[in-house]
Write a structure and sequence with these properties.
The chain has 528 residues and is of the alpha+beta class. It folds into three domains: 84-130, Membrane-bound Lytic Murein Transglycosylase D, Chain A; 144-319; 344-526, Glucose Permease (Domain IIA). It has 13 helices and 22 strands. Strand 11 (394-400) and strand 12 (403-407) form a beta hairpin. It is globular and about 60 Å long.
């Protein structure tokens, strides 16, 4: 069923009308007074999505910042080779070779008589044509720290940014399940779930939908405020979910997975300029969704999205943190996240920390087998009687909606330093935010709450300065390293290019475990 823009406008217009009637009522009462009186109005304090007092933001001028900073140059991500003969290197495929030369796989197949295109030998010579095709502009749009929900956005108030503007977002609401969510709540939910900077989401929402500046956007802007025109993806929540996943796909693909190209439209392949940073690649990727190549060129030009960002929040490079994740980063000591003596099941190897676009930094662990009567009563998504526990000392930065965020630096801010993200912990007996914990303290019961799950388990991942830290790095950008994911004696590994597939090792004869979904496998049992 196609949704009418009128339905999306309805709640917003109704709220605006209520505000207008209230204002007229107060004005009428004041005019009817028989004698002059002084009316004192005491403003009721308003608090934002983070519980902080809302104050009017410092507004930037409508015109762009006159002299944007020159971003710090990055080491080239790759060197595009000339045509000729290419010697296959370990891990290469026809796809990665084609990307290196700016050609397509079909171009390579036309030049080479390959018995099995899916199987290449190291040292095998491949004929390649001269490089061709289109490359993205070399203009940097945002620093990495403006893509990630990290220290630069730690004190940013979505409510404060929206409340004092007259746009459609201010009064917007949407039915989500059995609840009604405000526009601010939707932006906050997506920003926190994907760990994507809310400033960036708002800037994209304004650039594509004009939802911050215009009370009455067009019908298409109401249905597709991020410009992602896909059937079934109407409304702010779905649009932001798709945008955030695309942003993460570009960011983590460029930084950790060796992604150096994107596709515009159905078949126009575009190489990312090798001098770009991950944050810019992320924005270029997202702006390429369901967009014509000509429009995309306008979007990624300095007079496109970048100008909108400048007018809203100023130059993004003025508060950049570079590097956001230091190359010598060391993981703090962690234990397995459950009690000693319990046998849990390693059901999911490295996969998306939040959806597949993000870093493949999460693993899944299922608690010990539940009593049969519990499964009969509650189904596959039962509330486990067992506990997920703190893998290190720290403070609980957030506890809600299936999440427990354990802040390891103890400042209570989930956007700075090391954090552990526990997902799918049930509301019942879940630890409260602000609680200081020691290693082994109980945090909550595994369930299916939060995110998407079809069976009870714990989804565990790491972040540093808001950035999802992958388990391993298949093709890191220059200067980028990944600290090993170590839980007690066990070190986690992933199989290259295979999401959810991985294993753990520890010293000794019994030192190998492999991720498998089912319980009847000795190789996926973990205990300490």
């Amino acid at each position: 069923m196609t949704l009418s823009p009128r339905r999306f406008r309805h709640c917003a217009h109704r709220s605006l009308l209520a505000l207008l009637l209230a204002a007229l009522s107060v004005a009428g009462a004041a005019c009817s007074l028989s004698s002059p009186q002084v009316i004192y109005v005491t403003a009721t304090p308003e608090y934002d999505e983070g519980g902080h007092l809302v104050v009017p933001p410092t507004m930037t001028p409508d015109e762009p910042t006159p002299t944007p900073l020159q971003p710090t140059p990055d080491t080239p991500r790759y060197t595009q080779a000339a045509g000729g003969m290419h010697a296959v290197r370990p891990g290469e495929t026809l796809g990665t070779i084609a990307a290196l030369y700016g050609v397509t796989v079909d171009d390579l197949l036309a030049l080479n008589d390959l018995s099995d295109p899916n199987r290449l030998e190291v040292g095998q010579l491949i004929s390649v044509p001269a490089g061709g095709g289109m490359s993205t502009p070399a203009v940097k749009l945002i620093p990495d720290s403006e893509l990630v929900y990290g220290p630069t956005a730690s004190s940013f108030s979505i409510t404060g940014a929206v409340k004092f503007r007259q746009g459609f977002l201010r009064a917007y609401s949407e039915q989500v399940g059995e609840e009604t969510w405000s526009g601010v709540k939707i932006v906050d939910f997506v920003a926190r779930s994907y760990s994507v900077n809310p400033r960036l989401l708002l800037a994209l929402l304004e650039y594509r939908g004009e939802w911050l500046s215009t009370p009455y956007p067009t019908d298409e802007q109401v249905l597709y405020p991020l410009g992602i025109v896909k059937e079934g993806r109407e409304g702010l929540l779905k649009q932001l979910l798709d945008a955030a996943d695309a942003l993460n796909y570009g960011y983590y693909g460029w930084k950790y997975r060796g992604t150096i190209a994107m596709t515009l439209g159905e078949d126009q392949r575009v190489l990312f300029d090798p001098m770009l940073n991950a944050g810019t690649v992320a924005v270029q990727t997202m702006l390429g969704l369901t967009t014509s190549p000509a429009q995309w060129q306008r979007d990624v030009h300095p007079s496109g999205f970048f100008e909108t960002y400048l007018s809203l929040f100023g130059d993004p490079f003025t508060h950049a943190i570079e590097p956001l994740v230091p190359p010598d980063l060391v993981q703090p000591a962690l234990t397995l996240p459950f009690a000693q003596g319990e046998e849990w099941v390693y059901t999911g190897g490295p996969h998306g920390a939040y959806n597949s676009g993000s870093a493949w930094g999460a693993i899944d662990l299922a608690p010990p087998e539940p009593p049969e009567e519990l499964v009969q009563a509650q189904g596959a998504c039962y509330i486990s009687p067992h506990w997920a526990t703190a893998a290190a000392p720290g403070v609980i930065a957030r506890s809600s909606d299936g999440y427990v965020i354990l802040d390891l630096d103890g400042d209570g801010d989930e956007h700075t330093g090391w954090t552990l993200v526990y997902l799918h912990l049930d509301d019942s007996e879940r630890i409260a935010a602000g609680t200081r914990v020691q290693t082994g303290d109980r945090l909550g019961h595994p369930s299916c709450q939060g995110g998407i799950s079809n069976g009870t388990h714990l989804h565990l991942s790491r972040r540093y300065n808001g950035e999802w830290i992958p388990v391993s790095c298949e093709d890191c950008a220059p200067g980028v390293t990944v600290p090993p994911f170590v839980l007690g004696e066990w070190t986690v590994y992933g199989f290259p290019n295979q999401e959810y597939q991985g294993y753990m090792t520890r010293p000794g004869d019994d030192g190998y475990r492999q991720a498998e979904q089912f319980r009847d496998n000795d190789l996926n049992k973990i205990m300490w």
